[in-house]
Write a structure and sequence with these properties.
- Catalyzes the phosphorylation of D-xylulose to D-xylulose 5-phosphate.
- The protein is of the alpha/beta class and 481 residues long.
- The mean pLDDT is 96.
- The structure holds adenosine-5'-diphosphate and 5-O-phosphono-D-xylulose (5SP).
């Protein structure tokens, strides 16, 4: 038996690049054991992963947790948002999942927006104007490009739903992740039958939306996992909503997450409805809202630039005249799905370290441009930015965010805030507490605060200028794949 003070819970983050599992003491928040296993994401024109690999990665990550995972009383899965998982009548994937960063459905996003009343309609109805990331556009893409796969589909799930269902045998989701589909009306908090009918998707194929605090099910058998049959399974949620829980986030505190995606968000009491589409009006996992802006190019894009230059990711030098828009995967914020990377200001004396710094600047610029938009008017604009995700561990990322935001930056010591948020949700099932309150009790946001420095307005202005002057180039696809 473990020496934990309270029952153990498991929190899982099944994100783009890997699955991470934490075994956590629900009394103290101490991480008793952890594991991580990688995923494979396709390259080329699309971004796809085999959902069965997520399950294998979950098993492997739990295996790494050792005996502690055998004692858990509750489990919860947080996961990458938006991915379209199509299952046949036996619950097997019909094809690989289409991921959030697959921009092939950009034409469908544009068309659906026009066909159903325009950006204002979508924002009022669903909270968001659909970009290529949203599940509804992927379903429309599948209908056009692989009708036989569509016909074979007997249920439609998001990544976290898929794993939860494999645990419980029941098709469930939650409001946080449902709000990123494009077929969940944030105005009524229900599936939107008009949108579903328009894209030819029967609501019968969709999972039940479990309420915050409700049990999604129990582990149906011990499979080849360490859990006992009957272990409680929480609703789970999308990874950003899970991290918001994991930080015990209160309205008005901004978060900047540096992972495969870059995201900036805050919890809000008011339902967001941004008709420009910059801010997605997601629901959070406990009854409030999570206005959020997301970039497709963050840590992977900057790491790719470092690799091309043969540099360590920390080997940056100040880049005063150089602009690099690192849109290697197309981009969502700003909405330029056809874009590719763009460099301006290259000279004979430009160094590799300056090029790398310019990539960091370009990636952070997109996120900070949306920061004020996700905050309510009454939010304290001098409060520290909470910096999370794998990139938050890097000095170059921390210093770039500090310089370009002009705000204090707090870096929580806890590393896996998505998995911790899922663990807090599982703990809340046992104690009846609000999961965000559990996370605050665990003091998960604790970490050093880096003082504010003067905002580097010159760099922000230069990047904005290049973006605007290069608008036509950035709309143009260079894709010969
Ligand atoms: N010490 C570090 N310094 C800077 N970046 C890091 C460090 N460790 C990991 N990363 C970055 O973190 C990224 C993974 O972040 P993570 O939040 O786990 O991604 P995701 O949840 O999207 O799978 C990697 O792409 C890597 O670039
Ligand atoms: O699309 C979004 C948010 O709208 C992304 O934030 C995904 O949820 C993927 O997250 P990571 O794997 O980068 O954590």
């Amino acid at each position: 038996m473990s020496a934990a003070e309270g029952p153990l819970v498991v929190g899982v983050d099944t994100s783009t690049q890997s699955t991470k599992a934490l075994v956590v003491d629900s009394a103290t928040g101490e991480v008793v054991a952890s594991g991580q296993a990688p995923h494979t994401v396709s390259s080329g024109a699309g971004r796809e992963s085999d959902p069965r690999q997520w399950w294998d990665a979950l098993r492997e990550a739990l295996h790494q947790c050792g005996d502690a995972a055998r004692e858990v009383a509750a489990v919860s899965i947080g996961g990458q948002q938006h991915g379209l998982v199509t299952l046949d009548g036996r619950g097997e994937p019909v094809r690989p999942a289409l991921l959030w960063n697959d921009v092939r459905s950009a034409p469908q996003a544009r068309r659906l927006t026009e066909e159903l009343g325009g950006a204002k309609f979508w924002a009022e109805r669903t909270g968001s104007v659909p970009a290529a990331s949203f599940t509804v556009t992927k379903w429309a893409w599948l209908a056009e490009n692989e009708p036989e796969a569509l016909r074979a589909t007997k249920s439609v799930r998001l990544p976290h739903d898929y794993l939860t269902e494999r645990l419980t045998g029941e098709g469930t989701t939650d409001r946080g992740d449902a709000s990123g589909t494009g077929w969940w009306a944030s105005a009524t908090e229900a599936y939107d039958e008009e949108i579903l009918a328009h894209v030819g998707l029967s609501p019968a194929l969709l999972p039940r939306v479990v309420r915050p605090g409700e049990v999604a099910g129990t582990v149906r058998d011990s499979h080849d996992l360490p859990f006992a049959k009957g272990t409680l399974v929480a609703p789970g949620t999308g990874d950003n909503a899970a991290a918001a829980l994991g930080l015990g986030l209160r309205p008005g505190t901004p978060v900047l997450s540096l992972g495969t995606s870059g995201t900036v968000y805050a919890v809000a009491k008011h339902r967001p409805t941004d008709p420009t589409g910059t801010v997605a009006g997601f629901a959070d996992a406990h009854g409030d809202w999570l206005p959020l802006a997301c970039t497709l190019n963050c840590t992977l894009a900057v790491d790719r630039v470092a690799a091309l230059l043969g540099l360590d990711r920390e080997a940056v030098e100040p880049a005063e005249h150089l602009t690099l828009l690192p849109y290697l995967d197309g981009e969502r914020t700003p909405n330029l799905p056809n874009a590719s990377g763009l460099l301006h200001g290259l000279r004979h004396d430009t160094t590799a370290g300056q090029l790398l710094q310019a990539a960091y600047d370009g990636a952070v610029h997109s996120l900070l441009g949306a920061l004020d938009l996700v905050l309510d008017e009454d939010a304290d604009r001098s409060a520290p930015l909470l910096l999370i995700g794998g990139g938050a561990r890097g000095d170059a990322w921390q210093q770039t965010v500090r310089r370009l935001s002009g705000r204090p930056v707090q870096v929580p010591e806890a590393r896996e805030l998505v998995a911790l948020g899922a663990a807090a949700q599982a703990a809340g099932l046992l104690t009846g507490e609000d999961p965000a309150a559990v996370a605050r009790r665990w003091d998960t946001a604790r970490g050093p605060v880096l003082d504010a420095v003067d905002r580097d307005e010159a760099t922000l202005g230069r990047i904005a200028g290049v973006l605007s002057d290069a608008a036509a180039l950035l709309e143009r696809s260079t894709d010969a794949r």
